[in-house]
UniProtKB/TrEMBL annotation:
<dbReference type="InterPro" id="IPR010982">
    <property type="entry name" value="Lambda_DNA-bd_dom_sf"/>
</dbReference>
<feature type="domain" description="HTH cro/C1-type">
    <location>
        <begin position="9"/>
        <end position="64"/>
    </location>
</feature>
<dbReference type="Pfam" id="PF01381">
    <property type="entry name" value="HTH_3"/>
</dbReference>
<dbReference type="InterPro" id="IPR001387">
    <property type="entry name" value="Cro/C1-type_HTH"/>
</dbReference>
<protein>
    <submittedName>
        <fullName>Helix-turn-helix transcriptional regulator</fullName>
    </submittedName>
</protein>
Amino acid sequence: MLRLRSEAVIALTNHRGWSQNELARRMGVSKSALSRALSGKSGAGRKIIGGLLRIFPGEPLESFVAKEKKPGDNYAGSY
């Protein structure tokens, strides 16, 4: 599952004056599922990502999803 960039989702939500409950309602997901995804306790599945893309149509997927680290991403160069 993907990990949400919660700070971006919260900023977009606050900009519209919505509560987390309102965001969940508009997305068609439970408040608890959204809360778990925003806190990182669970990944963001199809319903969460789809809901965000539907209610924020001008935002690209990359706005909502954290880049996955791959082994070796922290490599700083030669020794």
